[in-house]
Amino acid sequence: MRALFARHALLPQGWQRDVLLEWDVHGELTRVAPQAAPPLGVARADYVVPGMVNLHSHAFQRALGGLTERAAAGADGGHDSFWTWRDLMYRFAARITPEQIEAIAAQLFSECLRHGYTSLCEFHYLQRAPGGQAYARPAETAERIAAAGHATGMGVTLLPVLYSHAGFGEQPLRPQQQRFRTGVDDILGIVDALGVLRGPQLEVGAAPHSLRAASIEQVRELAAGLPAGRPLHIHIAEQQAEVEQSIAHTRRRPVEYLMEHIGVDERWCLVHATHLNADETRALARSGAIAGLCPTTEANLGDGLFPLQDYIEAGGRFGIGSDSHVSHSPVEELRWLEYGQRLRHQRRNIAFTPEQRDIGQYLWQAALRGGAQATGRKVGALEQGRRADLLVLDGTHPNLDGVADADVLGRFLFCGNDNLVRDVLCGGRWVVQAGRHMAQDAIAQRYRQAVHELREVSQ
Ligand code: ZN
Known about the structure:
Urease, subunit C, domain 1; TIM Barrel; five-stranded parallel beta sheet; 36% helix; globular
């Protein structure tokens, strides 16, 4: 039965009652009809919202989550920072095999689906074998991510990463970065090889890693070589040190420099963009590009706080990502996004517009619109022609039982820690039912095996 009757469903125009949703064999919504009569024999749900987009992921880092939370020696903790964390992450990345990448990605995707993400953009930079030699199939590891997407039902946008330098000024890569080493032609070759996998549940774009790892000429060349309409993502202005290095080498701040030299438009997602001045904030908002915000990782790594209020006022678009995967929940990501701003401004209720003053509803729908744009896929809303990606929230939970439509997202995002996502439909397929992923046990078994192997190598 490819239909669902929702007593309450969040459509682009807001909450609607008695919505009949139908989709076709390819997983595309064919009908979204409010105020419908309940048809006989069709499954029913209390509260239905569109599945969320996770626009920034490095899947292999899932296995590292929670293992880097120990202060280094010395009274000052050795000044633990993004950069000391990165060294630990490099040591881990140096050992991992394609089979382990697939097992870890499948575990991550199943967890993300259970918490309400139905699309994910994989910013994939482990292109080479441990030691830095090319695989016989240059797209080998990216294909493993696609396989994990297929096995779990997750909608995936693969972004093979251009990574040529260790820092501004085309500094040579360090030994521990050799696994990531690629040039523009390598990435366009991988994009080409992945072309056969494209379909409604999988898109392929590309990502210059950062202005540290790719020169501005390379960024321009990659953007020009990628087929039209495909998404382009880049890490930018995540750390103050990166801003200072950019000014030292280019006399420009990173976002300023990118916008001056590259026609940043709706194809682009600028991941983090944490450190913006007022001009950059307005220019990014005007460009139509997406700011890819990853609040739990940015907090974990001590990055800083994005100027969300000014950016929203300037009409900026944004989405959310779980990046290093210290969280697998869009609820936690959006809660942190809002709470970070409240702490910064010492007041309440920051993320809203004059048209949408409900914080939960604004955050969910804005992150959906921005996230959908960043995927290059037809997702992000319950409307005809988009993917049938939706969450059935647990209407029997004390947080939701009998609440008015207007309070559902407030309850979902800002009350307690129970996972209220009961069932998940992704690409027209029920991948989570009663809180369990369809292949949860087999996926967890392979993940445990992969982590066990990695532990043995490290001992
Ligand atoms: Zn990242």
